[in-house]
Amino acid sequence: AKEQGRNRFHYFTPSMQEFARYRMALIKDLRHAISHKEFELYYQPIIDMNSGDIYKVEALIRWNHASRGMVSPSEFISVAEETGLINDIGNWVFEKAAHQSAEWRKQFGTEIQISINKSPVQFRDDGDTFSDWLTLLQHLELSSNAICVEITEGLLLDASMGVTEKLLAYRDAGIQVSLDDFGTGYSSLAYLKKFDIDYLKIDQSFTRNLETDTDGVALCEAIIVMAHKLGIKVIAEGVETEFQRDFLAKAGCDYAQGYLFARPLQQAEFEQAYLNPRSS
Ligand code: C2E
Ligand code: CA
Ligand code: CA
Ligand code: CA
Questions:
Q1: Rounded to an integer, what is the distance from CA 76 to the centroid of its chain?
Q2: How far is the CA of 104 from the centre of ligand 3 (A)?
Q3: Cβ neighbourhood burial of 15 (10 Å; 0-12, 13-18, 19+)
Q4: Is the dihedral of CA 155, 157, 158, 164 positive or negative?
Q5: Whose CA is nearest to atom 10 of ligand 1?
Q6: DSSP code, position 49
Q7: What is the pLDDT of residues 122-147, one digit of tens each?
Q8: How far is the CA of 61 from the centre of ligand 1 (A)?
Q9: Residue 198: which residues within 8 A CB-CB, separation 6 or more?
């Protein structure tokens, strides 16, 4: 049996074994993190390009692990998706964001829309969670506008998950939808209309290339013009320089998000910078 076991795995290189071990440990820690609520939401403002004021905010998950430290979502979201753990994580994100929105309304008297990221895997496995979400919004006496859902382009191409029906249910419930990372996938603008998308987020890679790439400039301008013709608002992601901000504003982009304005902030930092009544 020992010999067999060895044979079975002899084609694994040490680095593959290491990776498998690393992955197993990560999954185990993730399960622990879910049951022990080790996650946190950070908040990054989305700025109105006309007024320069905050328009809404995107919630971005962080995992604060005892020995791993602060783990970035790029390190664990894909594993969470492969294992289905993203469903529990995603529901936690929704509940946390909804409670935060209610709390901010109570404390600061404003209902600021919070955008959350929803994985295609959550759409696949959804079941009844959407009605649970609506029930929670009602329970907290939030408007359906309180939470916006960010989806990615790939989702729109996958008809197998009943995506059309699900997104139309969002529309009927009055929940807004953003299309994240626009331009990196395969979706056409025709999809945006079909699914009643409210916001389109120009991917950071386009924003980054504005200074160097004339094709990137033409693409950004064309995306903004066409989105507006379809009645869709445009958010530019990854705005880091004044040049980018000025270019996008001139091109008619509605909103912008990026380090130029603020990094994703811890709740308390966010409140201090954006929600406290301003003192003169
Ligand atoms: P995303 O939804 O495209 O989020 C934007 C990412 O860009 C965030 O990275 C944000 O911190 C970063 N960012 C914002 N402004 C700038 C900038 O000016 N320059 C640069 N270089 N980066 C900027 P983060 O927080 O590490 O999240 C990475 C990805 O992880 C997100 O990309 C999203 O796909 C995923 N993610 C984050 N939170 C969640 C969540 O709660 N659920 C799910 N399913 N995915 C999440
Ligand atoms: Ca996003
Ligand atoms: Ca809509
Ligand atoms: Ca994005």
A1: 14
A2: 24
A3: exposed
A4: positive
A5: 264
A6: T
A7: 988 877 788 999 999 999 999 999 99
A8: 8
A9: 148, 176, 177, 178, 232, 233
Rg (CA), the chain: 21
User: What's the rounded mean pLDDT across residues 97-104?
Assistant: 97
Closest residue by Cα to atom 14, ligand 1, is 258
Tokens, residue 164: 């059309």
Q: Is the CB of 183 under 6 A from ligand 1?
A: no
Q: Which amino acid is at 228?
A: H
Buried b (16+ CB within 10 A) or exposed e, 1-11: eeeeeeeeeee
How far is it, in rounded angstroms, from Cα 182 to Cα 180? 6
Distance 275 CA to ligand 2 centre (A): 22
pLDDT tens, 205-259?
A: 999 989 888 888 888 999 999 999 999 999 999 999 999 999 999 999 999 999 9
Ligand 1 mutation pick, 117, 248, 257, 266, max ligand atoms within 8 A of CB: 117
Alpha carbon distance 235, 56 (integer Å): 11
Residues 23 and 237: beta-carbon distance below 8 Å = no
| 185-224 CB burial, b ≥16 within 10 A, e <16 | bebebebbeebebbbbbbbbebbbbbeeeeebbebbbebb
ipTM of the complex in this document? 0.98
How far is it, in rounded angstroms, from Cα 168 to Cα 170? 5
Cα separation, 168 vs 149, whole angstroms: 13
In this predicted structure, what is the pLDDT of residue 279? 44
